[in-house]
Amino acid sequence: RCFCKLKGEVDDCSCKVETLDSLNNNHIYPRLQSLLTKNYFRYFKVNLHKECPYWSDDSRCALKDCHVSQCAEDDIPVGLKSGDPKENKYSRENQEITTCAEERELSALDTTISDETKETFKDWRKHDDAQVTFCELDDDNSSGIAYVDLLLNPERYTGYRGASAHRIWHSIYEENCFQPDSKYSYGDNPLANLCLEERVFYRLISGLHTSINIHLSAKYLYPGKNGYGAGTWGPNKKEFQKRFDSKTTDGTGPQRLKNLYFTYLVELRALAKVAPYLEMEDFYTGSDEDDDVKSIVMDILQVIKSFPDHFDESKMFQDPTQASRLKAEFKNHFRNISKIMDCVGCDKCRLWGKLQTQGMGTALKILFSGDSIGPESTVGANQKSQFQLRRTEIVSLFNAFGRLSDSIYSIEQFRSMMS
Ligand code: FAD
Predict the structure, then answer these.
(1) Which of 179, 247, 365, 404 is positioned for an S-S bond with 264, CB 3.0–4.6 A?
(2) How many CA atoms lie within 13 A of 353 on its CB side?
(3) How far is CA 234 from CA 216, 239, 349, 402, 419, in A?
(4) Nearest Cα residue to atom 47 of ligand 1
(5) How many angstroms does the Cα of residue 214 sit away from the middle of ligand 1?
(6) Does the predicted model carry a pTM greater than 0.90?
(7) How far apart are CA 174 and CA 31, in angstroms?
């Protein structure tokens, strides 16, 4: 029952932990390590100064390791600095989407409107379906938005904990209203009582939580001598065991680790589905250093596409009596969780929390948008497809997946430290 014996089915998919360990640690992880150092992926545009929409801000964490340094103007590659014309175009389209969503209800009035108008509504709905957004992206022109160099601000132990961190996790799990049995409170594992869609939602959030907590255990700060001095960074076996060992977690640790593998599988599938779209991107930054980005992306996508046991999203939302309610709830709860990230009291945690929820939201947008769903379906191959991704969505998707990949790699490291 020890975590080192974690193996077998990931559940809710036809894939085993061992298969994913091998795929990730031997093939995906090394390639992502090289890709995520490239300029296109390392500069993330983010607003860390947005107000928390749910409660008045906690006093911001003053810990040194919570600090995020923003990029100086000169550091930003020229192709990013000049602004991506596509970004503006997409912002306009996103505004349209809100209108389309409001117009959905009008389909009930079909008999009273002309055929031409009906066609327009149909087109709008098609457009809307192709652009389901699960995340509120930071406004590109808002005050407080800035580029952050992710390599200079790595996700690792910051010391953020206590009431503020617990309030965030508590709100996130509470926002996951898919808990039919009131005896469950946050932190419990309600999988047994949930239907597939509810379980998927819970497992995605729990998998993200697992990943964050693995990172702080794997890149832990040991204080300097007598509490002074610079301190040293390294893996903390005890911290990891405390959080994930079966004995110290009443058996929930291994299940939480499996949720990480599940989350990885969902994002892996999103990348497979969006591969034809990404293959048409040029990943332009104006920097010579990025000349090989496209070939690394193509290489990773090739590995991902040839993986046989992808998560099958077409099994979701199949019950005609529940599908539209569940879909709307799924989307709204996730959007709220993405907004909760603006309440995180530690800037570094907020940065990576925002990036990872945005990446997960992008994965969900890919899975539930576009022409079709299911293991064989793709988006972007059809030139007429209205599906579009902004640069920030592509950057967050790859970096979020990179975080999960890094966590799975770290599990292997911890396993060998303990054997
Ligand atoms: P917490 O991790 O705070 O968990 C609270 C409760 O949730 C636990 O008691 C448990 O019952 C339950 N729980 C724990 N894990 C899971 C899971 N996987 N699935 C389901 N339930 C679970 N700290 C850093 O040092 N570096 C960071 O980069 C960082 N990023 C963060 C980002 C966000 C968005 C948040 C909210 C927090 C972040 N933290 C970070 C803080 C960190 O996640 C913990 O909150 C902190 O270390 C305190 O841990 P804890 O043991 O009290 O339990």
Answers:
(1) 404
(2) 25
(3) 10, 11, 18, 19, 18
(4) 161
(5) 10
(6) no
(7) 37
- In 113-253, DSSP assigns E strands to 145-149, 220-222, 232-234
pLDDT at 178: 66
213 lines ligand 1 (CB under 6 A): yes
Q: d(Cα 295, Cα 410) in Å, to the nearest integer?
A: 26
Helix (H) or strand (E) holding 44: strand 43-47
Counting from 1 in the atom list of ligand 1, the atom nearest the Cα of 242 is: 51
> For tokens 């969503």, what's the residue?
101
> What residue's CA is closest to ligand 1, atom 53?
166
Please tell me the predicted confidence (pLDDT) of residue 181.
55
Please report the pLDDT score of residue 325 as a whole number: 86
Atom number of ligand 1 nearest to Cα 158: 25
- Residue 174's pLDDT is 81
What pLDDT sits at residue 58? 61
Q: How far is the CA of 211 from the centre of ligand 1 (A)?
A: 10
Cα–Cα distances in angstroms (integers) from residue 279 to residues 28, 38, 274, in the given order: 17, 17, 9
Going by CA atoms, what residue is nearest to atom 38 of ligand 1? 349
Position 287 scores a pLDDT of 82
Cβ 135 vs Cβ 338: under 8 Å: yes
- Whole-angstrom distance, CA of residue 11 vs CA of residue 262: 8
Q: ipTM of this model?
A: 0.99
In the predicted model, residues of the chain with pLDDT beneath 50 are 1, 85-113, 121, 124, 127-130, 180
pLDDT for res 113: 46
